[in-house]
Each structure stands twice: as C-alpha cells, then as structure tokens.
Amino acid sequence: MQLPGVLKGTFSEATAINATGVIAGQATVNVQGFELAHAVLWTNGKIKDLGTLTTLGQSWATGINAAGQVTGAANPYGSNPHAFLWTSATGIQDLGTLSGGAIALAWRSISLGRLPDIPT
Predict the structure, then answer these.
(1) DSSP label of 8
(2) Does 116 fall in a domain?
(3) Residues near 100 by Cβ (< 8 Å), separated by ≥ 6?
(4) How many separate domains does the chain show?
(5) Residue 98: which residues within 8 A CB-CB, separation 6 or more?
C-alpha cells in the first residue's frame, strides 16, 4: 500500500499501525527553510501533522495503540530528544527524559492507555 502524500517536504515513512488501520510515522515539512521531520498519522487516506515541542523542533512517532494514542520522540530545537505522548484531546505532550538522562524515547503505548511504569 502506498501512503498518500507528504506534508510540504520530500519524505514520509510509516513506523506503526494499530488494529483499526491508523498508521503512525513521520513526514518532512519545510519550516523557515529547514526540512524537518514531524510525527504524523494517516487515517482513511489523510495525513495529519502531530506537531513538535518547539517551532524548529522535530518529532518521530514510534507506536500507536487501539485508542489512537501515539508515542515517540521529539527533539526541541537545540536540545536532546524527549519522549512524547500525543492524544487527540491533548495534542503532543512532553514526557521529558529520565533523571540524569540525555535522551528519552517512548517506544510503545499499551492498550490501557498509559506507558509502562519505569522504576527510577
């Protein structure tokens, strides 16, 4: 299956699909002369930009659950990647990094609608 379109950039890729056929991934978009990756959803043949944490930041989707919640990483401009959770109700939410960590990535969401507990 070929996914429809890109966001105003030159690249897109799928990284996860849920049981209802909603696909999560990333596509590039031109922002102030920079081609940046944005996390996206493809639903019924339409692409939706899930946004970033900052104007010149990037985001990558890594998982989607049956409720349509998307997990991934977002790179705020000038910073290391932070884990994120996106929902249709709240949009992209910065989950930060683990204590003392430079990089964080939310790899999968689970069917209960929350991320697994990680001991600190």
Answers:
(1) S
(2) no
(3) none
(4) 1
(5) 104, 118, 120
Instruction: Give the pLDDT score at 37.
Output: 92
7, 47, 116 from 105: Cα distances, Å: 23, 23, 13
Polymer length of the chain = 120
Give tens-digit pLDDT for 55-90. 889 999 999 999 999 999 998 877 788 889 999 999
pTM attached to this predicted model:
0.80
Q: Which has the closest alpha carbon to 69: 108, 12, 14, 32?
A: 108
Task: Give the pairing type, strands 91-96 and 46-51.
Answer: unpaired
The reported pLDDT for the residue numbered 81 is 85
Q: Which amino acid is at 4?
A: P
In a domain, residue 61? The reply is yes
Q: Which DSSP symbol is given to 2? A: P
Task: Look at residue 29 and tell me if it is in a domain.
Answer: yes
- As a whole number of angstroms, the distance between CA 60 and CA 47 comes to 14
